[in-house]
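FIELD: query
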Amino acid sequence: MAHYFACAPDTAVTDTKQGKIRGYIYDGITIFKGIPYAKAKRFHAPEPVEPWEGVLEALNYGYVCPLLELPKPNGELNVPHRYWVMNEDCQNLNVWTPACDGEKRPVLVWLHGGGFESGSAIEHIAYEGENMCRLGQAVVVSINHRLNILGYFDLSAYGEEYANSGNAGTDDIIAALKWIRDNIENFGGDPENVTLFGQSGGGAKITALLQTPAADGLFAKGINMSGVIGPLLADSKGDGEELAIALMAELGIDGDIKELETVPYDRLAEAYRRVKPEFAAAGKYVGCTPHPNAFYRGVPEENGFREETAQLPLLVGTVYGEFSGFMPSAYDKHKLTFEEGAEIVKQTAGEEAAAELLPLFAKAYPERNPVELLTLDFLFRLPTQQFIRQRSAGNRCTYSYLFNQDLPINGGNVPWHCADVPYVFHNTEMVPSTQEEGVSEKLEAQIFDSVIAFARSGNPNHPGIPDWSASSPGDEQTMVFCGDTRVRRNHDAELIPLLAEHLGPKFEQMMREKMGDVQH
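FIELD: result
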């Protein structure tokens, strides 16, 4: 079947505050790529883009933020990637819309993963917004912004111009959200109905925005996918002056902070890689995560949620395996009896721990072999439980979910970190490892329709799933998405804290030994 494509001087042209732009049309979807939403000097706050004459072509993805280290392709069956041209001039976004027609459709804004240090708006193949746009009749936006020490390096000790350099990457996202507020009506979107959605570091960015007053009013809802990460992405404490001094010494700079603004990025990154280990070992400031200050309140676990954002609906959840889903297994769970699986748990965790954990696991996951207790995530799930408990104390619009569908790698692997992304975008067709006969299509529809329903109204319910109530502090109502999608109430509330207590150190050792350098 032939696909419709149109790209001409008078096709897919619309107005922005800075000037006209031109995209292209593909199968009824109008697509714009690489739209500049801001500009910035290194370590400084973003500034508006200068207006342009004529029509700006938005036909190519824009630069992505330079990385501290080049990625090593690995784990591509789990998470298929794309790599792109890197440059510090990376404040750009992409838009997919059904039409630039003045309609007020819901707007979904994707914040990519990779912590606050890596990743990009196009890193995963499944980040494409075309299917979400067409099937959800929504406007989809994805954003590139500054990362690592370009986006999160506190230099406030060096003067007012660097007052919020420790959160410059977040300020970029806010600049993009302001661009959306000011322009998205021309793309057929509703600026009053903007939903942020993000996975891993993208979810953590949503939390950072909730805690940042400058973002108030720029979005109405949030979907946080595996983004409540606790100490793995903790705020940067202290200030960056000592780090700046060490970097200048490493680079042979005489103490003028301005020279750090112009040194080639590869030299800056190399110096940072040399300096960081010693600083990290000493518990000193190393940047690369948000910095609490007058502009950013800090993580809610330590500082509470801001009242101004307490009533924003949030959809928050994790994946069954998360990081353990990347690790090769030493056993074939399909060939083990329940007794044999339980014995492996006893040998791994100890008799006492197994006696506590196995009954709780059987209650929470009766369909799974006991040995799968060893691949159940707690690094993400425990802080997510706490986040939902704390957040839902102040509202009735916090919804919990868990992605619990095994995927057909090595006979059936527990789902890994990022495994739910293709379902959210309705892009499982792009990711071979999602294909499970009789399951994938139904599960994709259930998850995708929940996302679109939430984007439209702040409520994820739709006819294809059981009734899904918001959680409260003593009643976490988790939609468990799998071949038999259902709501479970407090199903793992006792299990996860005990699992973290008993298996935390052992899991960290297993990760170091078995996980390897997997891109995710």
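FIELD: remark
The two ends are 34 Å apart (CA to CA).
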